[in-house]
Amino acid sequence: MNSNKLTFCTGVGTVTGANFLLETAGVDGKVGAKILVDCGMVQGERVAEEENSEAFSYDPASIDVLMVTHAHLDHVGRIPKLVKDGFKGVIYSTTQTRDLAELVLNDAVNILTMEAKQYGYEPLYTVEDVALVFPLWKTIEYHESFEITQNISVYLKDAGHILGSSMIEMSVKNPTGGEVEKILFTGDLGNSPAPLLRDTEAVGDVDYLVMESVYGDRNHETRDTRLEEFTNIINTTLARGGTLVIPAFSLDRSQVLLYELNNLVKDKKIPSVPVFFDSPMGEKATEVYRDSTELFNETAKKQIASGDDIFSFPHLTFVESQRESQGIDHIKGAKIILAGSGMSVGGRVIGHEQYFLGDPKSTVLLVGYQSIGSLGRELADGNKKVTIHNEKVVVKAQIATLYGYSAHKDGDHLVEFVATAGDGSGKGKLKKVFVVMGEPGASMHLAQRINDELGVKAMLPERLKVYELE
Length: 470
Ligand SMILES: [Zn+2]
Known about the structure:
Blueprint: E1 4-10, E2 19-25, E3 31-37, E4 65-67, H1 73-76, H2 79-84, E5 90-93, H3 95-119, H4 127-131, E6 137-139, E7 146-149, E8 152-158, E9 166-172, E10 181-185, E11 208-211, H5 223-239, E12 243-247, H6 253-266, E13 275-278, H7 280-290, H8 298-305, E14 316-318, H9 322-328, E15 335-339, H10 349-356, E16 363-366, H11 375-380, E17 385-388, E18 391-394, E19 398-401, H12 411-418, E20 432-435, H13 440-454, E21 458-459, E22 466-469
Parallel strand pairs: 3-4, 4-5, 5-6, 10-11, 11-20, 12-15, 12-16, 13-14, 13-15, 16-19, 20-21
Antiparallel strand pairs: 1-2, 1-22, 2-3, 7-8, 8-9, 9-10, 17-18
Helix pairs in contact: 3-7, 12-13
């Protein structure tokens, strides 16, 4: 039968490495078009796992279009390799995703080069390879139906995950007749209501849903609890005269935390101590956020309109050089350090952790998903001895976790999201949900709940198996 086919190349059985291939039906049983959704890096102990250097499971030269949901490395990290290996098609995303991806890929290539030198292998790609990506990249707006190739149009909806993040609704016309088939790729789904961004939009009337499941088996604190707990953690650490170190993802999490700190200082809920934002990439990303406030939610927009510079407050320093970064560890007294990376894999936060993990007065606050093998995961799991830069460090600092600041929906909200399919009163024409981008336990738990609670068929696709969409 001449049907559309979906292959999950990577990004199943694991949270990272999103890379899905849609092959549409053509005339006379031939393939119509080949569309990729995301081309992300598999992440673990090192920024780049060996898996990333393997050949793609398809010929990159045969791909017509790459659609990008958002700028996180696990969704864009292998694009330079795709281009290097022969991709000559068009890349589409929102403007903000393109701009943030440029920051992310240029940052990644520095880390890749360092890792390659350290472990003695060829880097996955070079600065020159990254530069070849952007001439192929075109931007499209949210909420405009756009034809990417013959018989296929896309419509971008706000995923509410990070600035510019979109869910991609693909409408595929069968050239030999029949109904238009609609597939929605969620990318990552935001933890709405978010402090800065708009809420995730509804699923709508689609036939198939390909959805993330990072927190498929867990729930987060509520918005009020997370702010209360954040305030408590800050106040108890500062009262001890300690340093609060927060490993923060440069995209979104950093901007959200700066915004929350701005409000806490303004409302005098925490003392005004030195706050160091030690993330050159985070600083650049904050500029992209500042330039796109029209995409913020109404509350944040109103606050900006009232004259508040929401990413800035007294005693906040943006740390520039590496030397300056090392210098702040030696500043005496209570302080807050916000630094990348979010899972303590590379980035300046590792130096601060090396310095403060042995200090019982200090706290390391984990505010997001920590992948298996990362230093952040070791700390989250309660390991008392960790190795940083070949030095054994005994953990005496407090380790706190606050997943309410996660940029991902929790289990209950993922189920609630699926329930917005059709007109929201039922599943509409939704035939199947492919549950991806989660550790197996989380994905399985979510698929089970979708089956049981909503009566919608949900399953965990196998990697590299071809699924025919009837
Ligand atoms: Zn993401």
